[in-house]
Design goal:
Length: about 1000
Amino acid sequence: MDSIAIVGLDCAFPGAPGSDAYWNLLMRGGDAVGDIPEQRWNPRDYASQEPGAVHSEMTRGGFIDDADAFDNDFFSVAPREAAAMDPQHRLLLQCAWRALEDSGRAPGALAGTDAGVFVGVMGGEWGRLRMGDHTEITPQLGAGSSAGMTANRISYHLNLTGPSLAVDTACSSSLVAVHLAANALLSGECDTALAGGVNLVLSPALGIVYTQLGLASSDGRCRPFSADADGIARSDGVGLVVLRRTADALADGQRIYAVIRGTAVNQDGRSNGVTAPNRWSQQKVVEAAYRRAGVTPEQVSFIEAHGTGTVLGDAIECAALGTVHGVERAEPCAIGSVKGNLGHTEGAAGIAGLIKAALALHHRIVPASRFADRENPQLRLAERGLRLLKSPLRLPPGEAVAGVSSFGMGGTNAHAVLATAPRTRNKAVGSGVRRDTAAGAAGVFTLTGDTPEALRRNLADQAEAVAKRPRGEAAALCWSSNRIKTGLPFRFALTARDTAELAAGLRQAAGQDLPGGVAHRPWSRPVVAFLFTGQGSQFPAMTAGLHRDSAVYRHFLDEADAALAPHTGGSVRDLILGGEQRIHETGTAQPALFAVGYALARTLTELGVQPAAVLGHSIGEYPAAVLAGVLSLDEAARLVAVRGALMQELPAGGGMLAVNASPADLRSLLDDEPQVGLGAVNGPADVVLSGAVKALERIAEILRSRGVRTRAVPVSHAFHSPLMAPALSRFAETAGTVAAAPPQVPLASTRYGRMLRDEPMDGAYWTGQAAEPVLFSSALGALNEALAPTHLIEIGPKPQLLPLAGRAGLRGDIEFLHPAPGAEASGRDLAELVAALYRAGLDPEWDALYAPRQRTAERLRPYVFSDRHRFWNRPAEPSEQTARSPKAAVRPVEPVLALGPPAALPAEFAEPADAPPARLDALSQERDPVLAAVVEAVAEVGGYPLEQVVASARFYEDLGFDSVMIMQLKDRIEARLSSAGEISVQQLLPALRSVGSLAEFLTECVSVRTP
C-alpha cells in the first residue's frame, strides 16, 4: 500500500497532559499509576471479599488530571449540553483541535472539507451511569451519552464533511480506527483524517468484570512480559493523530513524525472462548500487515506490543510474534508495551502505542520497557528472536521500521507497520547564489483566542515556549504561526526578527491589560485605499532596505525595470539602488518613482492587500492606473519614460512653491503674475504654486511679509503649469496611441478632483493631466465620501501624502500606513503594515512575506484551553446494599457545572479580578420585562449564568443553541410571555440573530396584542 503520513498528534494520558509530557514520561520510565480520584468512586465500597458480593480488586489505576475540565465557550457548547456530554466527547474535541494545530494547519482551514474522523471507543459507561433514571432523560443527555457521537461531535464542531464514525472492537478500537482512516485516505474518501481513541474509567464496572475473569492486577499496574505480571490495570487516555497521504504531506511541506507503511485487521474466529486470544490469528494479522507494507520481519527494529501483563495474553502474543520474527538477524527484535507506564487504556490502547512508536521513530530512540529487569523466562523471548529493552535503543541511520499491535477482547486484532519519515532534500543557499532574503528578516507572529483572556493565556504559554529555544531567526516560527494560530475572533500580531525579540514581545503583551492594544476583534475586513506619491519624494537608494529584505518586492521592481528599459536606455532599478544623485533629474525621477510605486503596490496585492480604491498624485497616477487595470504595465512605462524625457528637455527657469494658504487667498497674487498658476491643491490651506522662478520669488516675498509660510519644492521644472506646453504637444502624439480600459478598481482622479466616472483615461486625459493642477484634496474627499476607507496606505519611497491626508479633516479613526517610510525603511516596515492590517481583519497571503527558505514548518505549543468550567456527575454515596448487591451500580446523578480556578499563570501574567457580575434585578426587569423574560429563558435552556446572557449574544455562534434548544426556548418563552400569544417556528427563526433581536420581536408581538 502507499504510505500514510502522521503529520500531527495530540494526547492526554495519566501523568502526561500532552505529547511532550508523554514522551518525557516514556523516556524516564515513569509510573503514571495513582489512587482512584474521589470524583470517580470510593474503591472501599467495592472491596468486599464476601461470597457473592460485588467485588473489584481495582484500588488504583491511571487517571487523567482535570478530566472534568472543558472549555465549552470555545466550542460554543451551552453549559447544560456540556454537562450532559460524555466527558470522552469533551476530551476528544480539545484533543482534535490541538492535533490539527500540531499538523501545521489552523483547524478552521479544514472547515467544509472532506476531512474524516475515526474514533475508537470502548463501551459507554457515561450512558449507563446517566440514562438509568428515565425521568431525567433529556435530548442533550441522549446525544451526550452516545458512543457514536464521539466522532460526530468533532465533525460537527469543526465542520468536517468526510467520513465520521466511531469504532468499538474493545481494546483494539483505536488502532482499528487508524486502519479505517488509512484506507479511507488511500481510496480517496478524504484527504485528511483524524484517527485515534478515548477511554475514561468512570465506574468500577469493568474492573469488576476483570476481577471475576481473574484478569485484574493486584496493585493497579500492568507488568508486560514480566515475571511479576499478574493482570490488567485500567487507565484513562485520549489520543488522536492527523493522517494524510505521504505525497500530499510532502507537497504541502508538513512535518512528518512517521509514516504508516501498512495495516491489517482480522478476527480470531472460533477460539477457546469469545474473550480468549488466538495465537494463530495474531500471527496472521502481523504477517498480513507486513505484506501490505512490503517489509520482512528482519527489517523491523521494534514492536510496540499489546502487552497487557496477563499471563495468558503475554504468552500467546510472544508465541505469535516469535513465529514471525524468529529469523536470522543481527539483533533480536525489541518489544515493549506502554501499558507498563500507564496501565491499560482499553479503547485508547492502540493509539497510545501508535503515538509512542511514532515519537520513537521521530526522535530515533526507543524508550526502555518498564519492568524489563524481571523478564518472564517462560516467554522464551531470546529463542523467539525477541528482547525487552532494559535501556533506550538508538535507531541506526537510514529507514527504521516498527510494528504496533492491538488486540480486542472479542478477538478483533490489528497491526500497523510504521517507518521513519522520508528524507527531504533542503535546498541550501551557496555563497555563489544570490540569497532570497537578508539574514534576520522580520516576520509577523500571529496568535488568536476566543476571548481576550484566552489570548493572554496563550500569549504567556507561547512566550515561555519561545524563550526556551536557542536564539535564532524568528521568521520560520512566524510563518508557522500564520498557518496555525489564526482563525479565532481575537487577534494578536507582533513583528520580530529573532527568537529573543519575539519572546520578549510575547511576554510583554501577555502582561498588558487586555484588550487594549493587544487583543483586536475585527468585525469586518479593512477597507483600504492606495495613495500613490508624486515627484519630489525621490531620494538616492530609495527602498534599498526593502529590496534587500523582500524577494517579492525585488520581483516586481525587476518587472517594472524590464518594462521601462526599452524606453530609458538603461536600468532604472540600478539607478534607484545605486545611490546616484541623478535620481533627482526629471528624466530619471519620474520613471524611478513609477517603478517604485508599481513594485510597492504589487507587493501589497501579492500579500493579499487589495485596494478598494486608488488615487495618484501627479506621476503617481500612472502606477495607480496600472493597478486599476486602466493601463498595461508596458503602456504606462512607455508614457512615463516619454513624459519624463520631454519634461527634462524643457528650459530651466521654472519651479514650484508650497504655500500654507487657500486658493482664494492667493487669487489676487496670481492675477498679478500670469506666469504662475496653481500646480496642486493638497488641502484647504495646502497649495503648491507652479511657474517661473522669478515670479515665484516675488510671491514668496509678499507672503512672508504677511506671515504666510512658504517652501520651495525641490523640482527642476514648473510641473502642472502653462510652462509645460512645449513638451505637451509632443507628448500628446505618444499618449494618443494608448488603449485605455475602464478601471477595474474605483479611481479617484486628481485631474478632475472626484471619482472617475465614465470618462476614458485616454491620451487626452494624460496630456491634460500633465498641465492642469493636481486636485488632491478634492479627490481624497471624494474617495473618502464614496468608500469610507478604514486605512490609507501611501505608495511611494517616503511619506508625502499621508501628512496631507492628516490635515484634510477626515474621520479620526482612519489609520495611516506606509510600507517603506523613508531612507531607513526595510522589510520590517512592510511586515508591520501587514500586521496592522491583520489585526484589523485582513487575512493576508502570508507566504509572500517570507522567502522560500523561511517557509519551513516549526512546531508550536498547542492551544491552551480554559480549565475554569468543570462538568461532572456529583458522586453519590452508595448504600451498603448497593455496594454488596450482585446488581450493584453507581446511581445516575444530575450533572453539575463548577467554576474552577483559572489556569495557572506566572504572577506577571495574572488576570485582573473579575468585575462584579451583572444581575437581572427588579429595576432592570421593570424597565424591559420582555428582555428579562428572554434572558431568563435562555439561561434556563442553556444552563448559563444570567450575567452571561447579554443582549448582543448570538444564539448559534455564541450560545451554542441548536434546533432542539430553540424548541425548548420557544416553549419557555410562550409560558413566560403569554401576552405575546402563540408564536410559530417560522415567525421565530428570523428573530434569532441575537438575544436582543428576539426580545425586540417579542416586544412587537406583545404590543400588537395589547389594546
